[in-house]
Design goal:
Layout lengths: L8 E8 L9 H17 L3 E8 L2 E8 L5 H18 L14 E5 L4 H8 L2 H4 L5 H16 L1
Antiparallel strand pairs: 1-3, 1-4, 2-3
Helix pairs in contact: 1-2
Length: 145
């Protein structure tokens, strides 16, 4: 193997609006997600894909070896929340749920995961967030066998 260090750590995260409220309208999402992607770069975060639906966000990012998943997600959520509130996109104060879901993604599946994330609006025409998360948990359970 040639010299140097190469890391390919991809994480697919999902987090919800506070109380699962459908506050992320299509218009908000159209401006929020490009902002998140652009602003993340200034924080040393490489977002590969970000999209979501009315009540949640999916974000696929490349994790650097010195970046804890928890800190990256915390930063992404805080920046997005601050930006939404500063721009007064909503009539009341906006916030996210405290938790999140995080799944590792093999480098060979990054494109497939990004494609899935970029089709969230289409996906959620027939499935709720709860159904989506149940499907993710089922996949994880299958891996444990």
């Amino acid at each position: 193997m040639p010299g140097g260090t190469h890391t390919y750590i991809y994480i697919h995260t999902i987090w919800s609006t506070n109380g699962g409220q459908p506050l992320l309208s299509r218009i908000v999402r159209k401006v929020l997600f490009p902002y998140m992607k652009q602003h993340a770069v200034s924080k040393g975060i490489q977002i590969t894909a970000v999209d979501g639906y009315d009540d949640h966000v999916h974000c696929l990012f490349k994790l650097m070896p010195v970046q804890p998943v928890q800190e990256v997600v915390k930063q992404l959520k805080a920046d997005a929340e601050e930006w939404i509130n500063a721009n007064r996109f909503l009539p009341a104060h906006f916030s996210w749920e405290d938790g999140y879901h995080a799944y590792s993604v093999s480098p060979s599946n990054v494109n497939k995961s990004a494609e899935y994330i970029n089709r969230q609006e289409e996906y959620h025409q027939t499935k709720s967030l709860e159904e989506e998360l149940a499907a993710f948990e089922k996949m994880v359970a299958e891996l444990k066998k």
